């Protein structure tokens, strides 16, 4: 059996087909070649047209299926990963009523803050494990307050992945994990939060029926199958937000296991069986993809906005035509510690781990007689590693204390400098794997349709492609440098 995985991001849609028996991708494609448009009708807003997601999915799918020829008939299940926290609203005819308010839109921040104050800190942290913040529920409340004509027409609300599944199957469903992602879930009562819905004046009828992340969730309709060049009746058997799915793709399913990404922003995602919260709301907690009523599996997520975007900014503005491997080579030629050059990488807006403070990026200790390009590139990678250690210290307060961190072979983890610094600084082994979000979604589809009977079967094709282990010499150097960096950071936070 072949398995189809879809990864709906805010920049592009990637599609992969894996050989279920071997667990390896045999074809992949993404679209568009450049980033998808994000519209900003007002400052702090961010919207995308769901029809654009569908169009780019169909184009990516066509490119992915082309080399398969007649083998496409062997595709037996579909899995979906998607950008989290977005809001899609449709009427009774399944017509989208307005552009999707996506994850990076901040219009509902004040709405969530008012809810936090009125529901009370104690209730929110113990029941929701977080502030209502800028999550999907608060975005819906914003529509209710500011666009009442649209709100009155809403039949169902969906997350971005739910919309894609609806287009494929004509079924409107969501997942329990998705409900927790949207801050609709009461973790103490293990049900939808009536208090939150009552506060916002939202009818529970607007929520789609929830299904397990791994389950038969609808079948590809004949009409859509004909348009896509696929066989009718293929089940959609998995859906998950991009970060829980990234964890799944790396076989991070058990308490204590941790997955990381370091693209434009950075994410640390750990699995726990303890219902805990951060009293400062610096982390997010969701029901993980393998959570059940009998088996508590929660995903604890910490996001760092200022990570890889620093590296890409340096490439654009100081690289003079260099590619990332060349930048990494220049960084590797500089001694650890970058001859006293220190960077704060937080120039990508407010940071949740600083309680939504916006402290900006800055360079410290710059010496025009000593420092060159390579110093900037190494100091940047060291700074990103420092920010990950800072984040991990917060995660440890929730009981997650990893000895191994898993990551896909992509973005910042392609740099040996970065991997070695992070490994030594955090006393963890960094292990890289041959996977990505679309491959993980395909693997999830195989679990959901019952093709894989055990985790061992599902992850048999997952291979280690590289690793970094803590270096005691580097650990001594970077412990001292991290404390210097921390002093500078604290001066910025409390000035």
- The appropriate CATH architecture of the largest domain is 2-Layer Sandwich
- Name of the CATH class of the largest domain: Alpha Beta
Q: What gap, in angstroms, lies between the N and C termini? A: 60 Å
Total beta strand runs: 22
Number of domains: 2
- The overall average pLDDT, rounded, is 95
Write the layout of secondary structure elements.
Blueprint: E1 2-8, E2 13-19, E3 24-31, E4 47-48, H1 50-65, E5 75-82, E6 88-90, E7 100-101, H2 109-119, H3 121-128, H4 136-146, H5 148-153, E8 156-158, H6 160-169, E9 173-175, H7 176-181, E10 185-186, E11 191-192, H8 194-200, E12 209-211, H9 222-228, E13 236-241, H10 242-249, E14 258-262, E15 266-272, E16 284-287, E17 298-304, H11 308-318, H12 324-332, E18 342-346, E19 360-364, H13 373-396, E20 404-408, H14 416-426, E21 429-433, H15 437-448, H16 455-458, E22 464-468, H17 472-494
Parallel strand pairs: 1-5, 5-13, 9-12, 14-20, 20-21
Antiparallel strand pairs: 1-2, 2-3, 4-7, 6-8, 10-11, 14-15, 15-17, 16-17, 18-19, 21-22
Helix pairs in contact: 2-3, 2-4, 10-15, 11-13, 12-13, 13-14, 14-17
